[in-house]
Amino acid sequence: MAVKQAVAAFVAGLFMTASAARADVTVSTSTDPSGILNAIAATQAAPSGTIELRLSSLMGSEQDALRSVSSTRLRRLGSTMTTSDFGVRNSRAQVYSVNQLMSMPRPRRSSELNCLTEALYFEARGESIQGQYAVAEVILNRVDMDNYPDTVCDVVNQGTGRRHACQFSYTCDGIPERVTERDMWDRLMRISAIMLDGGERPLTGDASHYHTTAVNPHWASAYPRTARIGSHIFYRQQY
Predict the structure, then answer these.
(1) pLDDT at residue number 23
(2) How far apart are CA 151 and CA 142, in angstroms?
(3) Chain-centroid distance, C-alpha 239
(4) pLDDT digits (tens, 9 = 90+) for 147-200
(5) Cβ contacts of residue 115 below 8 Å, gap of 6+?
(6) Which of 3, 68, 201, 205 is disulfide-compatible with 226, CB 3.0–4.6 A?
(7) How far apart are CA 34 and CA 32, in angstroms?
(8) pTM surpassing 0.85?
(9) What is the mean pLDDT of residues 92-120?
């Protein structure tokens, strides 16, 4: 199993165990003097009292896996599904109604929220809501993959400033990024919040790449095609 998937499965297992004990779970992450991320899951109100599960007691293979995962990624894996960090209820369902989206509370700002909103605005604001979610899926799929960075901002800006190396064209097309459609930005911010809060990804078949129908990049013949939504065609990288 890939490193990020293994860590996700292990952390999820911890919370399933805590849930079975009818405990409320919170997670904190820190870095110990040796540089190993030490995540502690503290459970309260269990029948036998407070139970502490310390990931620092894991065997070496799990510790090696944790070393390769950023603290941001660990916090996301260990976050509870109650009220989100962005002020949006964690329904985990994609919302396709403009009215319903705009009736949601305005999300609290964060760098990850801004990076994802910006990417959707400059890459997909002309697409349908479904097409906008699809681009968000690709970005978050990359965050989950071993061969891409661990944060939304790093994924979006990967290769920026290097000729032919940027991953998202708007970051290196030489055109200043100016937001002129404020209503669209606000809609995309809510879509971004839903996805960052664990929104489902049913549209693109775990796609890691996409391109518009106006171009035919060299990699398109190397990856399986998974979906076409609006003017975008989606593909899944296999290595």
Answers:
(1) 41
(2) 9
(3) 19
(4) 999 999 999 999 776 666 688 888 787 778 899 999 999 999 999 999 999 999
(5) 152, 153, 156, 157
(6) 205
(7) 5
(8) no
(9) 95
In the predicted model, what is the mean pLDDT of residues 101-110?
Answer: 96
Identity of the amino acid at 178: R
Higher pLDDT, 87 or 123: 123
* Number of neighbours of residue 190 by Cβ within 10 angstroms: 24
pLDDT at 159: 73
Dmax over CA atoms of the chain, in Å, equals: 62
Distance CA 115, CA 154 (A): 9
First and final CA of the chain: distance in angstroms? Answer: 13
17 Cβ contact partners less than 8 Å away, ≥ 6 residues apart: 53
Distance (Å, whole) CA 222 – CA 4: 24
- Please, are residues 148 and 111 in contact by the beta-carbon 8 Å criterion? no
Q: Which of the given ranges, 24-33, 45-54, 207-216, has the highest pLDDT on average?
A: 207-216
So where are the chain's domains? Answer: 3-78, 98-235
Mean of pLDDT over the chain: 76
Give CA–CA dist 157/171, Å, rounded. Answer: 7
* CA distances to 66, 132, 222 from 128, in Å: 38, 6, 27
Exposed, middle or buried by CB within 10 Å (0-12, 13-18, 19+), for 207? buried
Count of residues making up the chain: 239
3-state helix, strand, coil in the chain (%, to 5): 40, 15, 45
